[in-house]
Write a structure and sequence with these properties.
single chain; alpha/beta; TIM Barrel; two-stranded antiparallel ribbon; binds iron/sulfur cluster; metal-binding; iron-sulfur
Length: 202
């Protein structure tokens, strides 16, 4: 494998519940924050997922012609250098909106972030910061708890609905093998566990 790579947990080419419009979503693998109540604990380990070339992923994002790119995880800022390269490669061909989630607050990233983390912050239109906290659960636009904030870092989404607007809901899909997949922020604490129990998963 030549050139820069990024370790990813999952991709979706057309998500309407994690940012404005129809978005290509990249969930990265690995999160150093390791929160006890993480909604995606399988994506915390720094190993696992799969490693893909940035150029290949950029080609795929361009081909899907979505309105924007959402970076989630896992912790996008743990792979800041690779994601800066991804955003720059995509934007050389299409000026896509870019939103990233982060478990770090914007204040932490600005004061204590690495140069690569500052470069990623500089390339975002929107940042949603802070980890999901079930003890502060709330039905908010693209966020599951009220410690999380939407930061408009450019004028691209000046017409966004108010940050206090209601949640965007969930997106469900049934795979060819009958498997059920969902995207979005959990509507209630423990949602993943409850859904898996309801479906009889181990
Ligand atoms: S910051 Fe987010 S992804 Fe990382 S462990 Fe905490 S809840 Fe999970």
């Amino acid at each position: 494998m030549t050139g820069p790579t990024v370790r990813i947990a999952a991709l979706h080419p057309s998500c309407t519940v994690l940012g404005p419009g129809r978005r290509f979503v990249v969930w990265v693998q690995g999160c150093p924050l390791n929160c006890r109540d993480c909604v995606s604990p399988q994506w915390i380990p720094a190993r696992g997922g799969r490693v893909v070339p940035v150029a290949e992923l950029a080609d795929r994002i361009i081909a899907e012609a979505a309105d924007g790119l959402t970076l989630s995880g896992g912790e996008p800022f743990a792979q800041a250098d690779a994601l800066v390269r991804l955003v720059e490669t995509v934007r050389r061909r299409r000026d896509l909106s870019v939103l990233s989630y982060s478990g770090y607050t914007i204040e932490h990233l600005r004061r204590h972030g690495t140069p690569d983390q500052h470069r990623l912050l500089d390339r975002l239109d929107l940042l949603i910061d802070g980890p999901y906290r079930p003890d502060r659960h709330a039905d908010l636009l693209w966020r599951g708890s009220d410690n999380q904030r939407i930061h408009r870092l450019t004028d691209r989404h000046a017409d966004l609905p108010g940050a206090a607007g209601p949640g965007a809901g969930l997106q469900f899909e049934v795979g060819a093998d009958g498997s059920l997949r969902w995207m979005g922020v959990p509507p209630v604490p423990g949602f993943r566990r409850r859904l898996e129990q309801a479906m009889g998963s181990p």
